[in-house]
Structures are given as C-alpha cells and as structure tokens.
Amino acid sequence: MALDLEDARRLYHFAFNAEDRARLPFYAALLTALEHDEQAQVLLAEVRVEQRNPMLILASLHLAALKGHPVLTPIYSRARTGQMENPSRAATEVLGVVNDEPDTVHRELHRSTQTNEPGRSAVFRAVIALIAQRGHRVINIVDVGTSAGINLYFDRFPVRSRDDENPLTLVCRDDSPIDRSLPLPDVVSRIGLDLAPLDLSIEDDRLWLQACYWPEEPRRMARLDAVLAARPSWPTTTILTGSARDRLGDALALCDPSALTIVVNSYALGYFSESDQIAFFDEMTQRCASANVAWISLESPFMVQWATSLTTSDEARKGGTQILVTLPGGSPTQWGWCQHHGLWMTLDDDAIASSNA
Questions:
Q1: In this structure, how many other beta carbons lie within 10 angstroms of the beta carbon of residue 83?
Q2: Which range of residues forms the domain containing residue 30?
Q3: Which of 106, 126, 155 is the last residue of a domain?
Q4: 15 and 102: one domain?
Q5: Residue 113 located in a structural domain
Q6: Is 80 exceeded by the pLDDT of residue 91?
Q7: In CATH, what number is assigned to the domain containing residue 302?
Q8: How many independent structural domains does the chain possess?
C-alpha cells in the first residue's frame, strides 16, 4: 500500500497551534522543516495509524539527544537552557540527522507518545473541587490513558498564578473567577488505565517520558524531575494494562463503592479509533446516569467524534481544549476551555452554578 505523504505533511503542519508556535520557536521551526521533507513524511506515514502523530517523531529525536547523540545532544541542550540563537538553523541540522540517519527515528516508532502532562492537574483540581461541593468528600480517581499515572496525583500539585520556588507548582492563569481555596476531597483509590503504561522505576521508561516533553520548556522538565523524586513517598496506585473498551469495567470494579468515582481523560481519546471514541462516550454517559460516577474529559474538539456537537458556545480560544463534565445522574455538559497543558483555563458561569445545585 502506498504511503500517504500528503497526509503526513498535513499532520506536521497542524501539530502546533498558534500559541505553541509563538512560545516554542525551535520546535515550530523543526515541525516546518519536517513538514516539507520527504524522508520525514515517510517516517511519519509508516507509523501505525493510532500513533501517527508528529509528537512521536519529535520524541524519538529528543530521546536520541538525551542518550548523547553527537549532533542532537548539543542542539537540544541549547534549547533547554534558552541559548538557542537561531532556531531555523538548528532545525536544519536536526533534519540532516533525519535524512542521514533515519534509523535514529525509525527504531523508536514502535513506542507510544506518553506526555503525561501534570499541568492538566490544575484543571482537574478546579473541577474536582467544584464537584466536591455537592457533598462528595471522598472519591476514587480513574485516569484513562494514564501513561505513568502522574495525574492520579492531581492533589499533590499546588496551583499558582505565577511561578515560585517549588518545582511541583502548576502555573495556571485563571481567565474566569475560580476559587482555588475550595477544599479537595480525600482520595481513597487511584487507578490508571493505559494500553502501554510507563513504569517510573524503569530507566528506559523514565527516559522516554522525558523525551516526550518539549525541550524549550525547562520548567516542565524540572517538574518531572521533582515528580520522580517525590513519587516514592506518594500513595500507591493501581495501573491496568489494556484498552478502555476492554478494561474500564475492571478499573471501576476496583473502586470503593461508597465513594464517588471520578473518571478523567486528557488528550488520550485522539488515539482511539472513531468507533472506540463513540463507545467510550456512550459507556461513560450511561455509567454517570446510573451510578455514583462522574466524568471529566479534557480533549481537543477537533480530535474526538462527539465533542463539537456538545459545544454550547463558540470556542473560548482557537486551539483550546474542551472541558466536558458529566455529573452523577446528569448528561455531558461543556464547562469551559483550557490550554492543552493547563497553562490557562476558563469556566462558564453555568458550570459553577451547576456544581452548587
């Protein structure tokens, strides 16, 4: 079967929104270079369809840099330390490696992108605190697409409007009134579900997780280092391997039935097939309607089959992530929008009102 290089080119072209391109000049230049390069198009087109994402190519190159590649390591080091003077030239040098040593990328394409961004916990914290106001003081948390399970610890990350000395702090700009002083519920069980979960005790898994981060964001890299250091002292989790269609029921069966179970997902459903997306939506809608279950979904409305039909207003921002919430006994409702790594969020007035109903 012929490779669809035009589709690969489009994937590179739309991999970043305007906000990311402005913040990350090296990766923006690299994506542009990859978009127009035939070898880079071939590499992406060869990836299995559920992982055909330019982030997998970027992570494979970053992994080689972390492992000491003679050309890539100094380039990525400059990106991490803010010493990148000419992003376009650096992107051209990286593209040279892609063409001269395609196996540097190709041998990693069996992997899965595993960003596991804890910044999204800033959004989860705000929404879960509002749900707790309805009398839910004890919860189970189930994370679908959990990777290494970092967002199962949403309650371990303080949230501030600006950076501070604590590497675990999540910096989130609240673009609507959000009461960050609301108490969080106690968490009695933390359960993750993933097709290919990462184990933070395994060096190769830790290195791959680092590679999936963007080198121009040293604050995120420092936070990951802090998570790795703190994780042994945090509560235990249960991580199940498998698809949501096959194992969501197993995950929910492990939850304390006396506590509210909150299922979350964030930038995971884009890797589901269309039929699995719809099946997951239907299952979660039914479970929330008939059981003590709530659902928080953070996904791009352009990457899932059902999100855009649920939009109750125009997008808060171009490229924003939809905050979809389903309360026990309720139906899926848009609560607001956020940046895909939790750098900003806004909640609709109706969302806050419904949480107090």
A1: 9
A2: 5-106
A3: 106
A4: yes
A5: no
A6: yes
A7: 3.40.50
A8: 2
105-141 pLDDT tens trace: 999 999 999 877 999 999 999 999 999 999 999 999 9
- Among 215, 115, 130, 117, which residue's Cα sits nearest to residue 170? 117
Summarised one tens digit per residue, pLDDT across range 174-196 is 999 999 999 999 999 999 999 99
pTM over 0.85: yes
Residues 322-356: pLDDT tens digits?
Answer: 999 999 999 999 999 999 999 999 998 876 776 66
Query: Mind spelling out the 3-state secondary structure of the chain?
Result: CCCCHHHHHHHHHCCCCHHHHHHCHHHHHHHHHHHCCHHHHHHHHCCCHHHCCHHHHHHHHHHHHHCCCCCHHHHHHHHHCCCCCCHHHHHHHHHHHHHHCCHHHHCCCCCCCCCCCHHHHHHHHHHHHHHHCCCCCEEEEEEECCCCCHHHHHHHCCEECCCCCCCCCEECEECCCCCCCCCCCEEEEEEEEECCCCCCCCHHHHHHHHHCCCCCCHHHHHHHHHHHHHHHHCCCCEEEECCHHHHHHHHHHCCCCCCEEEEEEECCHHHCCHHHHHHHHHHHHHHHHHCCEEEEEEECCCCCCCCHHHCCCCCCCCCCEEEEEECCCCCCEEEEEECCCCCEEEECHHHHHHHCC
How many other C-beta atoms lie within 10 A of the C-beta of residue 299? 21
Q: With beta carbons less than 8 A apart as the criterion, state whether 24 and 34 touch.
A: no
Q: What percent of the chain has pLDDT over 70?
A: 94
